[in-house]
Amino acid sequence: MSASLPPCPECASDLAYEMGALLVCPMCGHEWSATAVDDAAADGPRVVRDAVGNVLADGDTVTVIKDLKVKGSSQPIKVGTKVRGIRLIDGVGDHDIDCTVPGFGAMQLKSSVVKKA
Predict the structure, then answer these.
(1) Tens of pLDDT along 73-106?
(2) Are strands 22-24 and 17-19 parallel, antiparallel or unpaired?
(3) What is the rounded distance in angstroms from the CA atom of residue 23 to the CA atom of residue 2?
């Protein structure tokens, strides 16, 4: 038992001990990675920023800052297109905005191609 080890995430027991690369709780038998605990603590709340560094939130209105090619469409999303009522998500790849683009419908965008309006 060491004061530097975190408590068990399952039962909150402070009797955890190291066994190789894992931490083990003798009370409930739960095993977890010490690095996973460190990564979770370092992450904190997720903050999504636009292309110029403004913090985005659900419901914001954003403007597209460059032409975007859309698969299955012959027309791109033009610079200056306003998108209202965005939702922040953990999307595929680095797509972190779920929205409805006027003239195109529902899609996911990267925060790096928009700026807060």
Answers:
(1) 999 999 999 999 999 998 778 899 999 999 999 9
(2) antiparallel
(3) 11
